[in-house]
C-alpha cells in the first residue's frame, strides 16, 4: 500500500478534488468567522472566491494529484509569493489553527489528518522566513 506522500496517495486520502475543495471552503469559512483570525483575514481581498480556487488547485498538485494551479495560474513559489505580507509566527499560527479546525471537520482517516497538518507546517514556516527576509 502507498504511504501518504507517495504518488497520489495523499490526494486520494483527501477525497480528490472535491475533498480538497471542501477543506478549503471550510478553512476560509472558519477564517472569515473567527475573531482571532480577523487580522489575517484582513490581508485577503473581501471576496474570497479567487483565493478559494487558487488554494484548492494548489493543494491538489501539492498532494500528488493533478497540477491544476500551474495549469490555470502558472508557476508559484509559496514563500516568495507571501513575502509581501507581514507574516510572523502569530499570523502563521492563526493560519494553521484555521487549517487544523477545517481538517478536523473532514471525514478523513485520523492518521491522514495528523499527517496533513504536519506537512502544512513546512511551507507555513517557509512563508514566515521569506516574509522576515524581505523586511530586512
Ligand atoms: C503562514 C501563513 C499564511 C498566511 C498568513 C497566508 C496568507 C495569504 C494571503 C493574504 C494570500 C493572498 C490572497 C489574495 O490577495 O488573493 C494568500 C494566497 C495564497 N496562499 Fe497563503 N498564507 C499562508 C500560508 C500558506 C501556505 C502554507 C500555503 C500552501 C500550502 C498557501 C497557499 C496560498 C496560495 C496557493 C495562495 C493563492 C496564490 C495566488 O494568488 O496565486 N498559503 N495567502
Provide mean pLDDT, rounded: 97
Tell me the CATH architecture: Orthogonal Bundle
Separation of the first and last Cα atoms: 46 Å
Which hetero ligands occur in this complex?
protoporphyrin IX containing FE
- The arrangement of helices and strands along the chain is HHHHHHHH
Topology-level CATH name = Globin-like
The total tally of domains equals 1
SSE class? mainly alpha
- Uncertain segments are none
Beta-strand share of residues: under 5%
Question: What is the general shape?
Answer: globular
Helix content: 55-70%
Protein name: Globin
Pfam families: Bac_globin (PF01152)
Cofactor: heme
Keywords: Heme, Iron, Metal-binding, Transport
Features:
iron, metal-binding, binds protoporphyrin IX containing FE, 136 residues, globular
Amino acid at each position: 500500500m502507498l504511504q501518504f506522500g507517495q504518488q497520489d496517495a495523499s490526494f486520494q486520502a483527501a477525497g480528490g478534488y472535491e475533498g480538497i475543495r471542501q477543506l478549503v471552503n471550510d478553512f476560509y469559512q472558519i477564517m472569515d468567522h473567527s475573531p482571532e483570525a480577523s487580522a489575517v483575514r484582513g490581508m485577503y481581498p473581501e471576496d474570497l472566491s479567487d483565493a478559494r480556487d487558487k488554494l484548492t488547485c494548489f493543494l491538489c498538485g501539492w498532494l500528488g494529484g493533478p497540477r491544476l494551479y500551474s495549469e490555470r495560474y502558472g508557476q508559484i513559489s509559496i514563500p516568495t509569493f507571501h513575502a509581501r505580507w507581514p507574516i510572523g509566527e502569530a499570523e502563521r499560527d492563526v493560519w494553521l489553527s484555521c487549517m487544523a479546525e477545517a481538517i478536523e471537520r473532514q471525514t478523513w482517516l485520523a492518521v491522514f489528518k495528523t499527517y496533513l497538518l504536519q506537512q502544512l507546517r513546512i511551507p507555513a514556516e517557509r512563508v514566515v522566513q521569506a516574509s522576515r527576509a524581505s523586511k530586512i
